[in-house]
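Hi D.,

Good news: the full-assembly prediction came through. Inputs first.
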Amino acid sequence: MNKPMDLSSSLPDANGLFGSFGGRFVAETLMPLILELQDEYTIAKSDPEFQRQLAYFQGDYVGRPSPLYFAERLTEHFGGASIYLKREELNHTGAHKINNCIGQVLLAKQMGKKRIIAETGAGMHGVATATVAARFGLPCVIYMGATDIERQQPNVFRMKLLGAEVIPVTSGTGTLKDAMNEALRDWVTNVDDTFYIIGTVAGPHPYPAMVRDFQAVIGHETRAQMLEKKGRLPDSLVACIGGGSNALGLFHPFLNDLDVKMIGVEAGGKGVKSGLHAASLNGGTPGVLHGNRTYLLQNEDGQIIDAHSISAGLDYPGIGPEHAWLHEQGRVEYVSATDDEALEAFQVCCQQEGIIPALETAHALAEVAKRAPTLPREHLMVVNLSGRGDKDMMSVAHHLGEKFGVKQL
Amino acid sequence: MNRIDQRFSELKQQGRKALIPYITAGDPAPQYTVGFMHALVDAGADVIELGVPFSDPMADGPVIQKACERALKQGTRLVDLMQMVKEFRQTDTTTPVVLMGYLNPIERIGYENFADQAASVGVDGVLIVDMPPEEADEIGPLLKSRDLAAIFLVAPTTSNERAATICAHGEGYLYYVSLKGVTGAATLNAEDVAEHLAPLRGMTDLPLCVGFGIRDGVTAAEVAKVADGVIVGSALVNRIAESLDAPETIAGQLKSVLAEMRTAMDA
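Then the structure:
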């Protein structure tokens, strides 16, 4: 990067555009709602009372700040860069997702909405949404693909225990994109009383910017923590990407620090060349879906193609529009990790650090395995440990159970 | 003069209201579509909305969503739609055809390419569900310069201020979405519709056509009393879905559903 540009605060523009990405591609019935949401969010951003409440719940309810932990054994294991883990998996509900849910539910309350809906893939956003809905006494409906319900049973049960109604989505491929379609259909039907908590930095404006802002607490904390520990900024940041909210949350506060390298890791599935993957930037093309223009997995006719990943949370054929823009600007490097590489890194993290990461997070760790050994110990590398892997026990047992003498869970 | 404008001006002179059927192109298979279009005209269609199938039709209910799935499974592509319209035009040069669908398949082949092809085969209007006027700056002029009407939606949630903007952008006719929800979801309330149409009359001379929730002759006639046109989709597509094992009977069924509406509206 050699052109000085304020990457962090000027975008999106008033129309929700990051360059040519983003925007508001929704049917007219929803258009007035997202314009209202934009106005309300603008007010909340500069409302000290809203910010005070947000800080309170982030602290006492979510458990922030999350630690920035020096992963000494992992560092030794790879024998290169000093690896720091931003411990988002220690948040209440076990992932970064709740950072955003707390923000949006406070906004829903402020707007007088009486009902919460959300889509979920792996179930982490569904659990986080069901959690905040319970905390604020709002009825909650979660749309989840039938395929995902099958492979994420523990999270389905958690959502139900939290009082949410989980509606299986069988249309299309029964995964995250179809759950999002159904949630949008619910919203368009129940426009008067319902707040739609989108779980990632995608969807029509203002969602990509709003979710990013709520997740940016990750990067702001990392910055302060690294300055306190080492007296300087990290050299590189690594995060996994489905829609891209944990990555953007970590990256965004560093975008103007051009010496900080950023690496986003997409789900490579069986390999980007195999066609069975969820790597929208590495294996997709620009198009319009779910309210925004971004990189998509699509065929030559513009029909959306199924994503594939071992991790349900990355199994989405699109990516947040700001990532699409950062990709074209060259500010962030986007790579991919395969299912097998993620499974390998998953085990290394378990055994070296005593931390069971989410399969999503394991994709970021897989990139660390490739990159860290080539770098000197002075290189400070921060990995967003975006979620814990308890929910993935069934999937992992399916792939690795035999190795450990364990049958299907 | 664009065929849509021509048709509405004829209807106005005759004191009749437009009947506008929607079917998804390629459902249940591409070879049936042109025959269905002619059958609809025979039964009294004034304009035909031809759906462009899309894998993720977010504003549609299960009926049209499944129609899209069937059409895509049969390999229906945008280029096939163009051929269908071309074939239709060989024997019908007067009934306006509007392509209705989502933006991505159009964006994929390129706006200019799309507009060129549509104009050359005899398409008259384009309604892109997930493209509000705010996002139409690029494609709008390309449609206009080829005399393709850009048709927009107005919803019950639309404020008067927004409606005025939409009216200023709209061409052909204004598609008023009669209820909050997806296509095929519920039955509309004609009084409610009339109340929402009243302020639009003061904003535009465009014909006001109403869609979503029109199931039969009774609802069609009620809407025809307050609107300039009646749009019917899911009620027709339902017939297709119910007759997949006897596709040769579908054209006749579509005809009878539409003819009932025509009779009720003209009574």
